[in-house]
Design brief:
By secondary structure, chain A is α/β, with parallel strands linked by helices. Chain A contains nine helices and 17 strands. In chain B, the strands form three sheets. A nine-stranded mixed β-sheet of chain B has the order 11-10-9-12-8-1-6-7-13, sandwiched between helices. A two-stranded antiparallel ribbon of chain B has the order 2-5. The chains are: A alpha/beta (about 325), B alpha/beta (about 260).
Chain lengths: ~325, ~260
């Protein structure tokens, strides 16, 4: 087996996700993941940055991380285009032969990662949350089956492309701070099939939910919209509280977008987080994992959210929350 | 215009997922199944196009064991025109490369203008099969689509996709193309009684995956584990009232309630 043989000097590519000339937070989490791989098998880490003007961004990233970068400037990339990403990264990989390519498990990352894997004939693991060394292999951990089971997957070949769940790795902080080197290249590519039209904000996020000390969050388990009353009543008990929810409720229009907790919503860290009828999918956990104290109410004893809770209440929330409110009232008298 | 929607049967979330003995898969004997939630959204998106342009034909395709026919019939009940079942009876993990190459094969043999898949399956949670299929079939692809609009001449499509943080990216493509549909973008309709009657009699086009030249998946080694607890997860016991009282005690000790 060629894969993962240790003493070799390997190369790790990190594909940088950016917006408005700023790296997204995930970039430094990907660097932490790369660093963890590096501890298992010695490797050099390089950021790959694609865009119209990427030099400034590259200097920022290489300065804060001390890692090297290849900045690819492409005039046609004023807006993201998966065709260009796949072509350029595939060519770079053919030239540099990286053993690993690390990409964010985000809507953007998932848009081009699969196509790249096919082109590169690479092994491919998505949604990675951790990695462990075992014998000659590196196993990557990811959720399956609604988060109730974990799969540990090892690739038996190189190169390997992985996408990494946001909000799990602590952002990379280097020991030494001398800036990494930037190599800038210019490439031309005219996309054949896809024309990018623009990027716009469609939903506004205010920071009120991030400031709340206590968040009571509702999930699909509330079953009916009218049961949101219970959630609001429960939240009323706590000073400085706010009501949040899983994406499903926002999609249904039962809660507003600014209340969405998770990967594509707000990332919060209240002192207390109460999850009501939430299963614990990694995209939700990405938004609440840093909470101080977590209480989960769910009628399924195997729900994944219970792995993330300090206190587990295995109950039907429609029975439990009224009982809780009643006990609370009694106590006041 | 011909649309293909890829649908997958997934175990219901309240099944008990027990790891099998060699620890490389789960015991699936007593599972109950349903259609992947994201695929219902993908199908609804296709049906909404058919509502607008009557001449549109929608095929649904599923790769899987014999009982995948149940969700194919459900899809016909929702309003799809024809079902294709690519039989693949692997007991255990099926590589997304394998699934995608079966679908890509079918697409190449039967040209479609538009292909929809879900953004991810609820059991594998990989988000791979759609974009893998596109690449193998040589089609452009946009993932996590939340809105689509087909031009009147049915040759082009405008799509909006999620970027995150409330941002939306938009693209224009020439058809044919493949899109993965984000969940929650629409309200999937229920199968109608008349459609269901038709669906139960309908002939499903069955193909054996062994007859398809598949892309070799890069082999992986798989081991299943129960997720470790990241926090204590102290389980409250007793009646509902007792649990409520206990939680109140804990929260007031921690000074969250006064
Ligand atoms: C790219 C992408 C981005 C995403 N971004 C986000 C995001 O930002 N935020 C987010 O939340 N999700 C996000 N998701 C969706 C995520 O994958 C899950 O689908 C979602 O979090 C599930 O919501 P849920 O837990 O409320 O619902 P479900 O998974 O349906 O879980 C409901 C839970 O309630 C329990 N339950 C049911 N009835 C009761 C009852 N009466 N009493 C008590 N418990 C009950 C059930 O046991 C179950 O565990 C994203 C998905 C993708 C693909
Ligand atoms: N066995 C299958 N048969 C048909 N479509 C599938 C199958 N597996 C996955 N898909 C499609 O690919 C999407 C993503 O699946 P996954 O890569 O497993 O997350 C699903 O929403 C389906 O639309």
């Amino acid at each position: 087996m060629v894969a993962m043989r240790k003493p070799d000097h390997k190369l790790i590519f990190i594909i940088v996700e950016h917006y408005e000339n700023k790296p997204k937070a995930i970039v430094f989490e990907l660097a932490a993941c790369a660093d963890k791989i590096k501890k298992v098998c010695p490797a050099e880490i390089k950021f790959i940055i694609l865009g119209m003007e990427t030099e400034k961004l590259s200097f920022e990233i290489t300065r804060t991380t001390g890692l090297d970068a290849i900045a690819i400037e492409i005039n046609e990339l004023a807006l993201y285009n998966s065709e260009i990403y796949k072509m350029v990264i595939n060519n770079l990989a053919a030239e540099f032969l990286p053993s690993f390519i690390i990409i964010g498990h985000t809507p953007r990352g998932l848009d081009f990662a699969s196509g790249l894997a096919v082109r590169m004939k690479a092994a491919f693991i998505t949604g990675v949350e951790d990695l462990m060394e075992e014998g000659e292999k590196i196993y990557f951990k990811r959720q399956m089956f609604y988060g109730k089971i974990n799969a540990h997957i090892a690739a038996n070949s190189e190169p390997l492309i992985i996408t990494v769940q946001p909000g799990i790795f602590e952002p990379y902080k280097p020991d030494k701070t001398s800036p990494g080197k930037v190599e800038t290249r210019r490439v031309e590519y005219f996309p054949e099939f896809i024309r990018a039209k623009g990027i716009r904000r469609c939903k506004y996020q205010d920071s009120s939910i991030s400031e709340a000390k206590v968040i009571v969050s509702a999930g699909n388990g509330i079953e009916e919209k009218k049961n949101l009353d219970l959630i609001y009543k429960l939240a009323d008990i706590f000073p400085g509280s706010a009501v949040g929810g899983s994406r499903i409720l926002i999609d249904r229009g039962w809660l507003e977008y600014r209340q969405q907790i998770g990967l594509t919503g707000a990332q919060v860290a209240p002192e207390l987080y109460i999850a009501c009828g939430i299963s614990g999918a990694s995209q939700h956990l990405a938004g609440m994992r840093k909470s101080g104290f977590v209480v989960a109410i769910n009628r399924d004893p195997k729900a994944a959210i219970f792995n993330e809770s300090d206190v587990s209440v295995i109950e039907d929330l429609n029975k439990f929350i009224p009982a809780f409110l009643e006990e609370y009232e009694k106590r006041k008298i | 215009m011909k649309i293909l929607v890829c649908i997958k049967q997934v175990p219901e979330s309240d099944n008990s997922f027990i790891i099998d003995d060699p620890q490389n898969w789960i015991c699936s004997e007593s599972f109950s199944y349903k259609m992947n939630r994201f695929d219902e959204s993908a199908l609804e998106e296709a049906l909404s196009i058919k509502d607008r342009y009557k001449s549109v034909v929608i095929d649904v395709l599923s790769v899987g064991p014999e009982n995948s026919k149940d969700i194919i019939r459900r899809a016909l009940g929702m309003g799809a025109d024809a079902g294709i079942h690519i039989f693949c009876d692997a007991d255990g993990y099926v590589s997304p490369f394998l699934t995608a190459s079966c679908i890509a094969y079918y697409i190449k043999e039967n040209s479609y203008d538009l292909i929809f898949t879900g953004a991810m399956s609820e059991d594998y949670m990989q988000g791979q099969v759609g974009p893998l299929t596109a690449e193998m079939a040589g089609l452009p692809c946009v993932s996590f689509v939340v809105k689509q609009e087909i031009s009147h001449d049915q040759k082009n499509i405008y799509v909006e996709r999620e970027f995150g943080g409330g941002l939306i990216e938009s693209f224009e493509l020439k058809l044919p193309a493949l899109f993965t549909i984000q969940g929650g973008v629409n309200k999937p309709r229920y199968p109608s009684l008349s459609n269901m009657l038709r669906a139960n009699r309908a002939e499903i086009n069955a193909i054996n995956s062994d007859l398809i030249g598949k892309t070799d998946p890069k082999p992986v080694t798989l081991r299943m584990t129960i997720p470790e607890k990241r926090r204590e997860g102290y389980v409250l016991s007793g009646s509902v009232q007792e649990k409520a009282a206990k939680l109140i005690r804990i929260l007031s000790q921690k000074a969250f309630i006064t």
